[in-house]
Amino acid sequence: MESPDKSCETSPRSSVSDMSNIVNNYHDVVTESPDKSFETSSRSSLSDMSNISSNYHDVVTDRNMEFIWWIANRLTSYDEEMHKEILEDFFTDDAKYIHPALTIEGKYNIRKVFRVWISLNKDEPEVTNIVYDGHTAIISLIQNLRPRLFPLVHLQVPATTTLHFRDSPEGPMIYSHQDSWTLEGIVQSVPLLGWWYDHVVRNILGSMLTSAGGFLHTANQTTGYLQFRAEEVQKLSNDIIEKSSNDIQQRSREMTTKAQNLVDQAKTTVEKRVATAREEVDRMRQMMRPGGYYGGALSTKAITGTD
């Protein structure tokens, strides 16, 4: 897609007054068109009003695209004076420039980086397409990388520039300028590396991912089958346990009864032995008392003095 503003190429050193005229014309369309539409609507039908609104929208859209193409062509130009005019008139003082390799703030610092870049690279980028909604512009371009030290080296890298606008009393101002370079674009811009990436790396990775996908599919199927069989085994086990639960409970009751009987028998035996032991203790106590069998014999011997 070519730029609609061809004057950008024929007069690269024109002043910013051209841009001011564009902005003023845009302002005139915005302020005057509603009044004209109102006067016309009083004398025309609803269809005429629709046509006027459509024409007004087309005029505004054309002015917006003319404005953004004007900005893009001068912003990507290697003419330092033209770049300086854009920075001075359409960038805020705290504008931020974001690049894959760096981030800076302030339009004066942006101008310094621009000087370094044009001193290293020889060819200007080419703007291919622009999408603009009034606040954000997405500029598609081709970066022509041709180092001044190695002019025979020429790489064309697809890139994207995003401009964010902010409304101000002077008109729309750029507060953020972001350049994006994709890894795929950089790789494909190198002749041998690009061919190797397209025909070798991508095919190998595709085959590897396909094989991995087949393996995962088989593993998922096997896991599902094993889980299904495990559920069946669990169900059969539950059925067997449920069927044998009555026998187990009956045997458990019988064993409990036998154990209780043994406990009762042991308890009875222990009680009998304890009672017998108590009787023996009582009998021994009676025998050991004075006047008892052993006590009387000891007393008689003590009185007579005989052995």
From TrEMBL:
Residues 73-218 form the SigF-like NTF2-like domain. InterPro entries: NTF2-like_dom_sf (IPR032710), NTF2_SigF (IPR057514). Residues 1-20 are annotated as: Disordered. Residues 9-20 have a biased composition (Polar residues). It holds the Pfam family NTF2_SigF. This is SigF-like NTF2-like domain-containing protein. Coiled coil: none annotated.
